[in-house]
Amino acid sequence: GRLETEESVLQSINSNIQQAQELTIQAGNGVYTKDDLKTFASELSGIQQTLANLMNTRSEDGKFIFSGYQDSTQPYQFDSAAGEYTYNGDQGQHQITIAEGVSIKASDNGFDTFEKTNARLNVESNTASVSGSITAASVYVDGQAEFDKFHQANYNADPTALATANIYSVLVSPGATATDPQTYEIYRDGAALTPAVTGEVTDEPIDFAGMKIEFEGTAPGQLDFSLEKPGKENVLNTLQSLITGLNDGTLEGDDFQQVLADGLVQLQNASEQVVFTQASLGGRMNALERVSDSNLALDIQNKSNRSNLVEVDMAEAISELTKQETALQASQATFGRLTNLSLFDYL
């Protein structure tokens, strides 16, 4: 049935996502040439096409299983103008009645299964804006788990907040004397952090909340960067970005690692979203199986009851009924005689 088809498709999708993760990890080990990376891109392109086909699977009656209520609409198509895959279904879920008063969802749409995948949390740009005597600066996330916690705790998602609400600044100041080291302090929206985040400027990058901050120039000066708004990305577009990055022979160092980091985080998130859908589907299939088993047991009992009625030995039944009737008549006669006796009859 449709549920079994979906179960098989989701398993295949997750297997392909895991293959893509393995290839991405291999591509980032630093020993491959640009031609090697293009080979990885080609393999990922094959996986992407396989996933697109799976996500556009039809049920046995010819309907797209991930289109929601739009059964005749292909859910995923590549928009060549935008260079990305778009979802064309809706958020509907078909339902089927499995027993009187009991219904279950008979489908999962692509929006819930693939479009809700979290994109990697990041800064808006790896190139920070600079002022004063600071001439250039960069900010890269290199400790994802630490940065995720920081972003989730501090990002201001209030639509009425000022545009500067998520801007962080590193203010670099000269030392108290010519021989004292330069110092820095980090601000948010123009205000010092609490507790204060300060330090001495050295040749090493500034490490802050899972970010690696580097700059050129000298004090006094300032660099600014912003936390990126959280977003969503389906697995096909995650792979598209990976393929583009691996085919780009100019990306190196931190920029190349950021492409791989985006891919790995989002592939993992995509896998988890598919597993979540699989768990929900499994629960529904178990409910369907329980109702089916219950109906089967009831059917067997009904057949047994009908069989008992049909297969009665009529001669034996009549004989037994005659015995019971004779005994009943004798009992009634005795009771009648007893009730007609007076007290003197007992003396």
Please describe what this structure looks like:
There is one protein chain. The chain contains 7 helices and 11 strands. With 347 residues, it is α+β, with helices and mostly antiparallel strands. The protein has 2 domains: 2-119 and 234-292, f41 fragment of flagellin, N-terminal domain (Up-down Bundle); 129-226, no CATH class. The strands form 3 sheets. Strands 5, 6, 7, 8, 9, 10 and 11 form a 7-stranded antiparallel beta sheet that branches. The protein has a two-stranded antiparallel sheet with strand order 1-2. Strands 3-4 form a two-stranded antiparallel ribbon. Helix 2 (34-55) runs antiparallel to helix 5 (235-247). It is elongated. Mean pLDDT is 89; it is low at 334-347.
CATH architecture of the largest domain: Up-down Bundle
Can you summarize the main beta sheet? Answer: 7 strands, antiparallel
Strand content range: 15-25%
Summing up helix and strand content along with how strands pair, one would put the structural category as alpha+beta
| H/E element sequence | HHEEEEHEHEEEEEEHHH
Please give the CATH class of the largest domain. Mainly Alpha
In CATH terms, the superfamily of the largest domain is f41 fragment of flagellin, N-terminal domain
Cα distance spanning the termini? 85 Å
How big is the Rg? 37 Å
* Number of beta strands: 11
Amount of helix: 40-55%
Low-confidence stretches: 334-347
Number of domains: 2
Mean pLDDT figure? 89
Number of helices: 7
CATH topology of the largest domain: f41 fragment of flagellin, N-terminal domain
Globally, the shape reads elongated
